[in-house]
Fold each of these.
Amino acid sequence: MPKEPVNDELMMRYLLGGVSDEEQVRLEELYFVDDRVFEEVAALEDELIDAYVRGELSDTQRKQFELNFLNSAERRRKLAFAESFTQYLSLAPAATTAAEPETWPNRITGWLGIHGSTARWAFAAAGAVVLLVGAGLVRENWRLRTQLRQMQAEQTELRQREDQLNRQLALHNEPPIRSAPGKAPAEMAGAQPQSLPIVALALAPGLLRGDTEQKTLLIPHGPHLVQLQLALEDNQSYGSYLATLETAEGTRIWSKAGLKTTPQGETHIVALEMPSSLLGNKDYILKLRGVRSAMAQTSQNPSATQNLAVEEIGVYSFRVVKR
Amino acid sequence: MAIVVLLGGVCHPGRVEIDYRHLADFGFWVEAPVDRSGSHNLTRENLDRFLARLDPDRQRAGEQYQKLYRQLVKLFEWRGAPCPESLADETIDRIIHKFNQLEIHDVGLYALGVARNVLKESQREAAKNARLDEVPARVLLTTSRQDAQQRLEKVDLAKRLECLDKCIRTLTAAERKLVLEYYEEKKSENIRQRQKMAEQLGIALGTLRVQAHRIRAKLAACVDRRLAERE
């Protein structure tokens, strides 16, 4: 069978169930004959799941994913892994380095055929010099990468704050302000309307009793962007936050990892967004968890290692009424 | 006290796997035990003949068999079938059964054809059982769903992260660097970053993607093993 080009776009549509019968037949014949094509489709499946977890899919793709993709235990297992992997990547830049096993000097000299204590000490000394120089370069590289990450994180936070302010302005029918590189939002003029109208709801933690106290989100007819602003009870700081949305019966319908807080007056909030198509006329429970990384030392491994702790910090309930 | 309801959608005799989304609105907790006891239509003689046809060397024949099985499972998964393993079992059964009767030149393409028929049949069967009120239900009593599910979710992510951290440390340094860097970047930055990684390693981008996928699969299997050991 001749090798035909298979691109990411075709494979992605195949995984989401959006190909024609002819394309489906062609791709399946290709990956049953060519192992490389099969492995690329399998690899793209991982990337598709990651994109869903990170909220990077378009609305159409996300709907297709939720409708077609999560219908087997294996795929739900993959989604659970992707959620934890994404969370891990957002928290552990130091995970790229790890303490070496203690017996490595003997292993290396043995493998190189260096025997006798004098020869080993000489090799060790030469090795130490090389390691010192190398370590200095690695440390400098790590410092620069950490600085770059911090700057990128600050930039992302500024953009989020800017978007939040623009949404608040939009709610009050005022034109939003977009920033240009090097200028603060307040210095710019010109309005760009949001692509979807926004409905927002501020929530405080705690499951309320009685229908009269239930916070209600009114969604007008048509597609909207739902923004939920979750107030935090205290000022504990976490590396990031994980939010999961469930029906009152406990069915999970949405989750998002890697969330950050935004200051609001004297407190902090976690703001999240989702399409209104995800919600129906029912009660919902939103659970917020904080993810913290902690340094720990053990006697076997005196170098500090990084552990991750997840703590539930708030449960928020609300009712949705769609007109 | 919650009620567990096992509804239709039986994957294979003795196995039950249910699409939980459709049932959740009824407020029941859906339990999905899966029996992986394997096919019951296979004779030793038929299997030997099939393996010999895949490859004269028994070891390589076993590898070819496993590769074919994996391809079939993924095909059914990617086509949205809820019971990919049992459909793959059914497909292999039929192929082996037909091996005595037909001259098959390309096992892979023949398997694909059989798999499509198996899938069509299972979709027709599923369409017959589509209305929930027509499906007979078996009801079991169990302890409170809310408490159990909350406990499960509370520890689930924390346990996973801990297991993942330990599993990542079992990788070689090169594997760890590759998999963390490959999956680290967001979509807007990752294409350039991955191209750069591929150039640094002296391999094609597609090869890099496959290598990252294999390491990730290793990590996922390690996490599952550690989680199972904890229970």
Amino acid sequence: MRGVLILCAGFALTVISSDLLLRSRKIQAALGRVVIVQAIGLVAVVAVLSHSHELGLVSVVIFWSGAVLTWFGLRSHLESSILLRMVHMLRERPMTGPDLIARYASYYGQAHRIDELQRAGLLTTDQARAAMTPTPKGRLIARLVSRLR
Amino acid sequence: MTTLDAAAVLCWCLMSLGFVGTRSRVRAFNVICLILLTLVLVVALSSAGTVRSADALVLLTGLALYWIGLLIVRVMLSRSVSLHLLLACSSGHDQPTMDDRIAGRLDDARKYHLVHQRADVYTVSRFGLVLDVVLGGLYRVVGLR
């Protein structure tokens, strides 16, 4: 079971490193860097475990893929969930529906989200049409999302 | 590569294909994953003498986490407001708006008994308070305001 402990500790350290890298940035805006950190963590754990022959490569890679996907989903949900944030805001003080919606919009409303999409290189301003248009990367993700939905 | 390794890799691939193939039919996806995971468990039990128990434990945990992760991604795909904005901008038909989606989440909070509504004012329910204690801790841990 020493191998399992090494694997869990390695994954925990990699998640902490990813969180330190992100600080208050959204995970989806720094996905490339997070993927690099996770890949380094996986390679390091595989290297350590290959010496002791305590766990097979397939086991480690499958565990890592599942753990990373779950962590990514939970972290992303925590950052962007409107419902959770509304509950958090209501705990500070009771509000009417319109007040709460306005408060949320000022916290992380449409302008913030568009700004985030721009910083992630998914949207750009089309000066001629005075509108937002997707970048090639944004179009690719939009196509992918449409197929998976 | 052992038989269990091969079964786990096949299970991982079929879960991924199931995720793409079932789209928003979450129940069908869950049934597929449950059957696949059960089959891998049967393979693990039948090869108990030849495979290390640590390997079997890690493989099964990894596959279960992958299933959970894919379910969370499914929720993101169907509910993410940022993705909705990106899709709206990509379609180029109209300017996107998210006000109706924000209002919809307030209805969800009421449906899940996270908030109460008295007259026009919303307050957090007892269940919502418990959730918020956990949530507040998590927000602090990941450095969110």
